[in-house]
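Model it.
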Amino acid sequence: MRRVSVLTSGGDAAGMNAAIRAVVRTSLDIGWEVFGIRRGFAGLIAGDFVPLGARDVGGIIQLGGTMLGSGRCLEFKTEAARALALRNLRQKEIDALVVIGGGWLPAGIVSTFTNWFSNRRNRLDNRQRSLWIRNHDWRYSTQHRFGVD
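Modeled.
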């Protein structure tokens, strides 16, 4: 079974819970196991993963903020913190990471996670790939997805 994790980064914004719900429900629909990461990148460093199911995200669309918690994590700018985050993803055998939020992405995150997940991308079949946004423009997007094109 494939595994996807989702985290929210930066400040709270309208629609974050709806985006989490969409990731969870879509992933479950294609047979993936879903984990939420509490407290954004700080939770990724700490390994704060929580399994998410359809009932966990029911009734959250109208709520403000983000059910997973969010925030900026200056520690994630260091190579050591990113290495720890990758180790936590490996231990959980995560195949894809969805980062919801914008405006603040720590230096090096795009190259760090793109390199890690590029090796795992070949495990996806065409149906799974087609369900994710392709060819997005990093300069204008506020939602960054790693692991699939």
